[in-house]
């Protein structure tokens, strides 16, 4: 490219430059050669020496390989010699071992005699005999071996006799008994005989432990006449002793029996299970007797702990002997729990009766002047809260039987039947029903001669209590019970809440009706005596209201205050504006005599009766003994109806003079002035008083009534 593109001058310059570079490079290479000449010479000498050494090493390796081949040949010869020596040594060792075995067989009788002697080491003798027995049997055809075997058998037979004698010793503990039977089995004694002797000896020891437990119990009295003394120890101590002694030893017995006789002919589990079932049945009977001595309530937690400990030890026994009374043990625990629930029910009943006694005492206690006792609302609140608190406390105690840390709480009975039949139905529902029956009994029970009757205030209080149970308490109690003792979906049918509420309401209705009858009868008794003891023909002209009428109004007022403490006012029918001033006449407009009614004709007295009966047909019928409602107005109306009806019937049986009729007129007007405000409908009071006046006029020999203004004046003054 330079030659073709550059001019001549540049080509010459370029040539000169290349010549200078070539000469400089040649000079540098000569300098490098001169400087490293000695190194090149030394490297060449070294390479030459290394080639010589390599050839020598190859020769030495060839010699070494030849030597190794020779050594390998020698090693093979040495190994063969060693193997031959080892084989000869093993043969020698076998001969020596055989000699030692023969020597040990020769020494067997001596060793057996030394170890099988009384007080020696029979276990070592048995091991020695077990090791030598197979060899001696194998070489029994040789006279020397047969002699050794016969001598050994004689020694072991003597040992077996001593072990048999020891087996009959009553002082043997379970461990020594097991060792003795085990040695006899090693001596090839009959297993069926040893099984019987083993169970007999162990049974005697277990029977002694049961006898010790029975000694703590008082003797059973079939007649039940004598009072059973309380045991010295509590139920937990009794169960602890029974579990640690009897149940524990029975578990050891079962384990030892299995280890000794399992798989041996003639000594199956059937013998052990029958033996254990008999003993456990006796133990359960003793525990039942001890549980029956638990009087009253005691400490429920102590009983639960005792039953839990019993169940745990029994469960350990059942793992060894499944047929040793699993159902009987579970039934025993269930009966104990149910019995405690029944006692709690009786305790609740006793507590309620005690509370009723306190209420009756508070109602009957004399009151000092100026000092009032507790009112009915306070007594009701105290009674209700005490009973409910006691019931909740009982549920808390019963809940200990289903606690999570209690082993028997996992039994099917305590998960289903106990919660429903024992607690909900047998305790809560049964108590509520008993309470309703007891309260109702104050109204339904026949009054025995000389027996104290229930005070009316108690009837009223119990009626309010049953009504409160129907409204809220029963629902609360059942909800609380179902939360603490949840029933299973597939469990037995439970009593529904509305059915209990209906029973409570029925009891409240019966009590309130009886209260009305009792109070009405008390007022009616005063009115009847006042009518029967008065001479209505010879009485003087009335100047005052009779005292008995004032007493009736006072008693009705007191009853109004009493009922108002526990029941609501109720609804009254709208009264007329002049109810308190309404005229009270001995005649209605249809039967007034001539000077009071122009239509009256003395010559036709039967017309008056006819008109009176016709008026009754069109008047509203008054039901005297109809059920009352749960309010004050209805209760007072019922009492007033009974009282005035009694007054009416008594007046119908008397014969009155003019002044007698006027006295009835004054008394009736006085009652009308004050009683109308207590009744639900004033027309009831007015209608009954009208009938009283009409009956008095009908029974009067000289029916001349008093002027109404005079009647009002006398009543206002009275």
Automatic annotation (TrEMBL):
It comes from the Eukaryota. It is found in: Golgi apparatus, trans-Golgi network; Recycling endosome. Belongs to the VPS51 family. Its main location: Golgi. This is Vacuolar protein sorting-associated protein 51 homolog. Component of the Golgi-associated retrograde protein (GARP) complex. Component of the endosome-associated retrograde protein (EARP) complex. Keywords: Endosome, Golgi apparatus, Lipid transport, Protein transport, Transport. The keyword Glycosyltransferase does not apply. InterPro entries: Vps51 (IPR014812). It comes from Circaetus pectoralis (black-chested snake-eagle). GO terms for biological process: endocytic recycling; Golgi organization; Golgi vesicle transport; lipid transport; lysosomal transport; protein transport; retrograde transport, endosome to Golgi. GO terms for cellular component: cytosol; EARP complex; GARP complex; membrane. Involved in retrograde transport from early and late endosomes to the late Golgi. The GARP complex is required for the maintenance of protein retrieval from endosomes to the TGN, acid hydrolase sorting, lysosome function, endosomal cholesterol traffic and autophagy. Acts as component of the EARP complex that is involved in endocytic recycling. Coiled coil: none annotated.
């Amino acid at each position: 490219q330079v030659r073709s593109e550059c001019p001549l001058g540049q080509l010459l310059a370029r040539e000169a430059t290349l010549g200078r570079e070539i000469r400089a490079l040649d000079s540098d290479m000569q300098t490098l050669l001169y400087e490293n000449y000695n190194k090149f010479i030394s490297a060449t000498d070294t390479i030459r020496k290394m080639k010589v050494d390599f050839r020598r090493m190859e020769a030495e390796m060839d010699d070494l390989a030849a030597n190794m081949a020779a050594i390998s040949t020698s090693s093979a010869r040495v190994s063969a010699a060693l193997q031959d020596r080892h084989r000869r040594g093993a043969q020698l060792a076998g001969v020596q071992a055989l000699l030692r075995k023969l020597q040990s067989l020769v020494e067997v009788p001596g060793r057996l005699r030394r170890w099988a002697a009384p007080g020696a080491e029979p276990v070592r003798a048995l091991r020695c005999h077990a090791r030598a027995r197979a060899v001696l049997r194998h070489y029994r055809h040789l006279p020397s071996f047969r002699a050794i075997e016969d001598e050994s058998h004689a020694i072991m037979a003597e040992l077996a006799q001593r072990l048999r004698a020891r087996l009959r010793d009553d002082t043997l503990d379970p461990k020594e008994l097991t060792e003795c039977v085990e040695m006899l089995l090693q001596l090839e004694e009959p297993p069926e005989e040893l099984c019987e002797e083993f169970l007999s000896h162990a049974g005697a020891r277990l029977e002694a432990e049961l006898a010790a437990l029975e000694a703590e119990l008082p003797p059973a009295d079939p007649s039940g006449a004598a009072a059973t003394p309380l045991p010295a120890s509590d139920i937990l101590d009794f169960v602890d002793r029974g579990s640690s002694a009897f149940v524990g030893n029975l578990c050891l017995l079962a384990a030892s029996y299995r280890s000794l006789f399992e798989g041996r002919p003639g000594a199956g589990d059937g013998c052990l299970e029958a033996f254990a079932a008999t003993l456990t049945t006796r133990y359960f009977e003793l525990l039942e007797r001890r549980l029956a001595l638990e009087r009253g309530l005691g400490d429920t937690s102590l009983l639960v702990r005792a039953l839990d400990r019993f169940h745990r030890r029994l469960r350990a026994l059942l793992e060894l002997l499944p047929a040793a009374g699993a159902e009987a043990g579970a039934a025993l625990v269930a009966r104990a729990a149910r019995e405690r629930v029944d006692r709690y029910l009786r305790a609740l009943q006793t507590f309620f009766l005690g509370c009723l006694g306190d209420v009756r005492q508070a109602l009957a206690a004399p009151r000092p002047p100026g000092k009032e006792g507790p009112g009915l609302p306070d007594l009701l609140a105290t009674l209700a809260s005490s009973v409910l608190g006691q019931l909740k406390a009982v549920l808390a105690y019963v809940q200990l039987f289903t606690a999570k840390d209690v082993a028997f709480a996992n039994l099917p009975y305590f998960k289903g039947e106990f919660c429903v039949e024992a607690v909900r139905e047998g305790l809560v529902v049964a108590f509520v029903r008993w309470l309703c029956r007891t309260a109702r009994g104050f109204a339904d029970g026949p009054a025995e001669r000389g027996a104290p009757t229930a005070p009316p205030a108690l009837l009223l209080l119990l009626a309010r209590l049953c009504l409160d149970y129907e409204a809220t308490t029963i629902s609360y109690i059942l909800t609380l019970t179902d939360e603490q003792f949840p029933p299973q979906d597939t469990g037995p049918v439970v009593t529904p809440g509305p059915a209990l509420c209906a029973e409570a309401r029925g009891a409240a209705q019966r009590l309130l009706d009886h209260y009305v009858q009792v109070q009405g009868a008390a007022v009616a008794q005063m009115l009847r005596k006042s009518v029967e003891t008065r001479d209505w023909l010879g009485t003087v002209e009335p100047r005052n209201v009779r005292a008995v009428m004032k007493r009736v109004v006072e008693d009705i007022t007191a009853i109004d205050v009493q009922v108002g403490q526990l029941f609501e006012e109720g609804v009254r029918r709208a009264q007329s504006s002049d109810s308190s001033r309404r005229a009270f006449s001995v005649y209605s407009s249809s039967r007034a005599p001539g000077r009071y009614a122009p239509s009256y004709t003395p010559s036709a007295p039967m017309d008056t009766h006819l008109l009176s009966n016709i008026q009754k047909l069109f008047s509203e019928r008054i039901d005297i003994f109809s059920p009352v409602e749960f309010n004050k107005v209805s209760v007072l109306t019922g009492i007033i109806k009974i009282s005035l009806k009694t007054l009416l019937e008594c007046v119908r049986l008397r014969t009155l003079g003019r002044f007698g009729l006027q006295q009835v007129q004054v008394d009736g007007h006085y009652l009308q002035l004050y009683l109308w405000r207590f009744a639900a409908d004033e027309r009831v009071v007015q209608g009954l008083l009208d009938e009283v006046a009409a009956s008095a006029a009908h029974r009067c020999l000289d029916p001349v009534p008093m002027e109404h203004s005079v009647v009002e004046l006398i009543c206002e003054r009275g």
